[in-house]
Amino acid sequence: MSGPLVLRVLASAGRVAERAAELVRSVLRAGDLGIVIKENVNDLQTKADRLAQQSICTSLALKFPKLTIIGEEDLPPGEVDAQMVEHGFMEEILGHKCPAEYENVKEEELVVWVDPLDGTKEYTEGLLDNVTVLIGIAYKGKAIAGVINQPFFNYQAGEGATMGRTVWGLLGLGAFGYVPASVPAGKRVITTTRSHSNPVVSACVDAMEPTDVLRVGGAGNKVLLLIEGKASAYVFASLGCKKWDTCAPEAILHAVGGKLTDMHGNSFEYHKEVKHMNSAGVLAALTDYEYYAARVPPTTKAALKP
Ligand code: AMP
Ligand code: MG
Ligand code: MG
Fold this sequence. Notes:
Layout: H1 5-30, E1 36-37, E2 44-45, H2 47-63, E3 68-71, H3 91-94, E4 110-118, H4 120-124, E5 132-139, E6 142-150, E7 165-170, E8 174-176, E9 189-192, H5 199-207, E10 212-215, H6 219-227, E11 233-236, H7 243-255, E12 259-261, E13 282-285, H8 289-294, H9 298-303
Helix pairs in contact: 1-2, 6-7
This protein binds adenosine monophosphate and magnesium ion (2 copies).
């Protein structure tokens, strides 16, 4: 296969995420989630997280051996069942023209950040549309492309509806796979965590003077709410989110003109040596980012060291 590498990696990631989404659905159908507690009871891993990561990382590494791939889950090395390896590409992505600045990027220059299942807590509680599979692609330390697969999209729409979708984006090209929309004028809808809140998180949400607050799981899910006009800003004034949570969502949001930073307004870096924790929280908006950045209280900033 020929064509610019960035498009081939992204098209592979798109298909690989679809396969991971199938695994996420099938583990739930089978009913044995195999839950493991990681740091604490709000930080879980299930069989779906494990299988999806094995499938994603093995599939990408076989096709692109010089990529740096960093996955969320700490898994023992071992053979991965050939059945779990995905060789395909999302044809739709290959059909696009690569932006000139990424035409000559080499495999060894890319870092891929994988969250095999974002919103695990919500997955175990049956809040299925909060769940996403995230594959972000970074170049020169910057999030440039990403895939957000939502395995249970439409799960309440009834028979006949196709379950699951792939939203993807590339800087300089745009984002695809969803219906763009804006929050109605006069509304300030803040989306934030539902399972990792604390007084600092709540105070910062209040400081935005929201008309509505959407407490939902997942970083991928919250950025989908932004680009679909269901939320105005994603405000999370706490450590806890990691680079694999923000890389793909950030790339997609930036590809459509939005902005995602920490609570101080600092951009995130995604080179391979960067620390994984986003210690100073997450602030993101599609439009009016400056409004929200200006309202982050000094006490919030003081509580969150980058
Ligand atoms: P949330 O908005 O709470 O769903 O968090 C978005 C992402 O960040 C998910 O992958 C969470 O697992 C992760 N996260 C946020 N806060 C924490 C925390 N305190 N401990 C562990 N993971 C967290
Ligand atoms: Mg996550
Ligand atoms: Mg995860």
